[in-house]
Amino acid sequence: MTPEEEIMALRKQVAELTEMVVYLTKKIYGQKSEQIDPNQLALLEGNDGVFITPEQPGQQSDARSSTGKEKAQKDTARNPKS
Questions:
Q1: Integer Cα distance of 59 and 53 in angstroms
Q2: pLDDT higher than threshold 90 for residue 37
Q3: Is the distance from CB of 60 to CB of 68 less than 8 angstroms?
Q4: Region entry Disordered: which residue ranges (predicted)?
Q5: Helices and strands counted in the chain (H then E)
């Protein structure tokens, strides 16, 4: 194979590989079929939205914290520390 033929073969291979990279990049990072439901955005809008102020780290809602306390009390009653 002459140097010119080798250059042409390598350029063809580079073109094929570049095409594959473009295809795979679109496949991985391209537009997804997931759609945003407009009703979900209402949760974030205005003062009547569900998520007005985020809880700070260490804070829990009342329902969850009382359940945790009750469970801890039950666990302590079942397995008292020695």
A1: 12
A2: no
A3: yes
A4: 47-82
A5: 3, 0
